[in-house]
Amino acid sequence: MTKQQIQPTFANDTIELAESLRDVIGRFVRNVRTGAGTPTSAQSETLGLLDRNGPLSVAGMAQTRNVKHQSMRLVVAQLEGDGLVERLADPQDRRSQLVSITPKGKEALSSSRGARVDWIATALESELTEEERQVLRQSIGILAKLGEAGA
């Protein structure tokens, strides 16, 4: 017999806030990527993961990013074809391979991050008042706290 998971109950305003936050953040990220002309999320996230964590196996990346192994293999193949990642022998198991970000990949990652920062900075300056920017500065800590929840 398996234990039935108990679903927490939330106040309606909490559900509405959660949905609004999910929607707004999703649109914001898509608009930034489109406006800055940066790579797809899967490619960018994979390069960022390799940059932060160092060489990883395809299986390890798939597990960390919570995607299917086959999907991760396709992303790695695209990045490898563009010279942004390379395969290395795993020093722990010579039969296995690790994927590592190349200098060209680091440059591409830095460039896309810079383009996104520039797009956001332009939007901050052109669309928000100083008071709104101050509220946003204060909100960064709150969003960071939410981002660390359950981590």
UniProtKB/TrEMBL annotation:
The keyword Transcription applies. It comes from the Bacteria. Keywords: DNA-binding, Transcription, Transcription regulation. Pfam families: MarR_2. GO terms for molecular function: DNA binding; DNA-binding transcription factor activity. SMART domains: HTH_MARR. InterPro entries: HTH-type_Bedaq_tolerance (IPR052526), HTH_MarR-typ (IPR000835), Tscrpt_reg_MarR-type_CS (IPR023187), WH-like_DNA-bd_sf (IPR036388), WH_DNA-bd_sf (IPR036390). It comes from Neorhizobium alkalisoli. The keyword Transcription applies. Residues 7-145 form the HTH marR-type domain. PROSITE patterns: HTH_MARR_1, HTH_MARR_2. This is DNA-binding MarR family transcriptional regulator. Transmembrane segments: none annotated.
